Amino acid sequence: MCSLSIARRLLCLALLLLPLASVGQQASTEPLPDAPDATPTTLFPHSETAPYYIAGQANIIFQAHGPFHSPYDGANSLQGRGEYKTSLVGTLFLGLELHHSHRYATEAIVDFESAGGRGISQALGLAGFTNLDVVRNPNLGSKPYLARVQIHQVLGLTGKLEDTPRTSNSLATQLPERRLELHFGKMSLPDYLDINSIGSDSHLQFLNWTVDNDGAWDYAADTRGYTYAGVLEYHDRSWSARYALAAMPTVANGIDLDWAFSRASGQNFEFELRRNLLGHLVSRERKGTVRVLSFVNHAHMGLYRDAVNAFLSGQDAKPDVNAHAKFSSVKYGFGLNAEQEITPSLRLFLRTGWNEGQHQSFAYTEVDQTVAFGGDYSGGNWNRPNDKIGLAFVSNAIKRDHQNYLRYGGLGFLLGDGNLNYAREDILETYYNLHAWRGIFYALNLQFIDHPGYNKDRGPVLVEAVRMHVDF
């Protein structure tokens, strides 16, 4: 087993990368492709015309951090001692065209998934946790489960078609330029909302929860990140609009969903505009997109202020927001998400979010306000068109009631050091993603975290990671 001394941790990383080095040497003997698309990025070819879709992926992430300054810790703290953990997620994607028509297509989507391994400190102690693949309740185990099962219906409003990429959620390669799309069934809301082509994919891009998603968007989901929902989309030539209605968990971070939509639901609205956001500052053909998101959650939630007042009055032995939960409580918030191509290789993104922060964090993570920005750079300039470098900074915050709750010893579903000397949680993340061969990718990832869990008394901490990703 690897020791947690710096030297041995680096040795562990080197041993994990030995296969990468040998693959890279073999790949260098082959002629360079004429274009990025000339190199396959899956192990097996996928048909663009078959009425069915079969694909799969596996994502293995090894993460470690050394000891850091920690004068105290609590039940939900990032451990001050050094540690390392490995996570593994595998997914089988299945799709079938039930009715083939460019204008009125109907598809069935079914995905099976297995999530095993662990996150550092059991995925506790950080609002911006360092590995999006980690299930927040490791006791659920790695037994395969049904991740998605849904019907996708396209209703074309024009005969003019546009090319669209074939994905696991949409099989058509051409769709009407103006259309309605309906997705209904089990899904993850970030499949359709708050998407960002630079910061949304933990398998090939950044790993941090609050870089890949808007941390202040407390989107409806069970512990694994899925819910039953309906998503209605309208697409036009340069803009889109979306509405989603989803089931909320019965308790914070719970695996069971509340089916009484009259008292518990997540409603989400998004407007997307596709245009060059920088005008004459960049070339006219450079693409840009801005998305504005809002959400309103109704659930069995409590107020942080009620929990603190009950503790200070002697009613409760310690602050417990769950003990003061009320049905049909309302939590709402907003988000802004933008991305822009600068050159053929360089892209930049910005994501901000805010929620009211008085009701408890319930479904995603403990963030009331966030701002993230960064970018990526493809490797075409050094003859590695499918390689990518990424750099992002995210700063997360919580409101005063949330701060007081943690300061007096309250526990959220992720945070709780037993005390709190508040400061924003600031995270700098970088990665290099290397395309080794066909559908095999390796990545090195570093995350520097200042004030973990919003606590100025603890940290900073450096988290190192190695990722292997395989697309079948």
| CATH H-level superfamily | Porin
H/E element sequence: HEEEEEEEHEEEEHEEEEHEEE
How many β-strand runs?
18
For the sheet with most strands, the description reads: 16 strands, antiparallel, barrel
Strand order of the largest sheet: 1-2-3-4-7-8-9-10-11-12-13-14-15-16-17-18
Are there runs of 5+ residues with pLDDT below 50, and where? Answer: 1-37
CATH topology: Porin
Beta-strand proportion: 35-45%
Distance between the termini: 31 Å
Count of DSSP H/I helices:
4
The computed structural class is mainly beta
Mean pLDDT: 92
CATH architecture: Beta Barrel
* Highest-level CATH class: Mainly Beta
The outline comes out as globular
Summarize this entry quickly:
The protein has 472 residues and is mainly β. 9% of the residues lie in helices and 42% in strands. It has one domain (6-471): Porin.
Walk me through the structure.
There is one protein chain. The chain has 472 residues and is mainly beta. It has one domain: Porin, CATH 2.40.160.10. Helices cover 9% and strands 42% of the residues. It is built from four helices and 18 strands. It has helices at residues 6-27, 209-212, 304-312, 400-407; strands spanning 52-65, 83-99, 106-117, 145-156, 161-163, 174-176, 179-187, 227-235, 239-246, 265-274, 288-301, 326-341, 346-355, 369-379, 384-397, 425-437, 440-450, 461-471. It has a 16-stranded antiparallel beta barrel with strand order 1-2-3-4-7-8-9-10-11-12-13-14-15-16-17-18. Strands 5-6 form a two-stranded antiparallel ribbon. Strand 12 and strand 13 (346-355) form a beta hairpin.
